[in-house]
Amino acid sequence: MRIEEHPILGTLEKKAVVKIEVDGKLIEAFEGEPIAAALMAAGKSVFRYTRKKGEPRGIFCAIGQCTDCMMTVDGVPNVRTCITPVKAGMKIKTQKNIRNLKTDKME
Question: Domain total for the chain?
Fold first, then answer.
């Protein structure tokens, strides 16, 4: 589900439909929309798991200030999906582990 009529922004402009890969599955998204919006429209609510306890996280602030929506995008970890626009062919993965830069090990 996407917002098409917004009470303040009015009618939202239609954009090109593109395909992106999320955890090995192809989904449709609108080019330029935030990755998080595309994922939520496709029914995905868990974007990463915490390092210590493995707890699920999804979108929280939606303005790029927190780290809950971080995913690995095109091989780059820790991408904030709420402020990163969709491009055709992106490969996105749920982030389960991240590299500790001090020890150079996956945690």
Answer: 1
